[in-house]
Write a structure and sequence with these properties.
By secondary structure, this protein is an all-alpha fold. It has helices at 3-27, 29-35, 38-59, 62-72, 76-104, 113-120, 125-130, 134-158, 162-184. The mean pLDDT is 81.
Length: 194
């Protein structure tokens, strides 16, 4: 397949994966507005917005850097080196974020503060893009959204957990996506202690 044909195919796969997940999320808006109070929905939206704001600070965008380097990597040794270094750096940054959070948390007076750190510590999709697994990237995005949506329905509509349920669903959906991608891409094969 030509280079432009391959690019078109990959773009379509990613587009379909992203649009379908965004559309499903849009369909859940009536559930949120019907079962959550304005204050709860606003608080959840604020927490998720803050997470998106702080993820580049917490992660130093190492996942994006890994994606960029993996595009040019030609052999397995370089792949292992890039993914291992990224994984180690993200692990260290996550520990630092947890330490900073434990110092700052007593000064924050919201019951939702723990969800901020939990949601911000789970991410894996960029490695799939960098390894040129476009289908897996789109599938991982769909798994994340689908599991988040299912958990939202269960937590909000059935268990009546309100805002905590929505935050739990967001965290658990991201965690399920990370676990799925970890095993789907066989990440453990690319992580070497040395």
């Amino acid at each position: 397949m030509s280079r432009s044909g391959e690019l078109t195919k990959k773009t379509l796969i990613i587009t379909v994966g992203r649009i379908s997940t965004q559309f499903i999320t849009f369909l859940l808006l009536p559930l949120y507005t019907a079962l959550l109070s304005t204050e709860e929905y606003g608080t959840v939206d604020l927490v998720i917005t803050l997470v998106q704001l702080f993820i580049p600070v917490i992660s130093l965008m190492i996942d994006q850097g890994a994606f960029r380097y993996l595009l040019n990597v030609k052999d397995d040794e370089q792949r292992k080196s890039t993914i291992s270094s990224s994984f180690l750096a993200l692990s260290i940054l996550s520990i630092v974020a947890l330490i900073v959070y434990s110092i700052v948390a007593p000064f924050i007076s919201t019951p939702y503060k723990i969800w901020f750190i939990l949601i911000s510590l789970v991410m894996f999709l960029q490695i799939a893009r960098g390894l040129n697994f476009t289908s897996e990237y789109a599938l991982g995005s769909f798994v994340c959204s689908a599991s988040t949506i299912i958990l939202n329905v269960v937590c909000i509509a059935i268990l009546r957990m309100n805002a905590i349920g929505m935050l739990f669903a967001t965290f658990a959906g991201n965690l399920i996506c990370c676990i799925f991608m970890f095993f789907r891409l066989h990440i453990c094969e690319y992580i070497a202690i040395k």
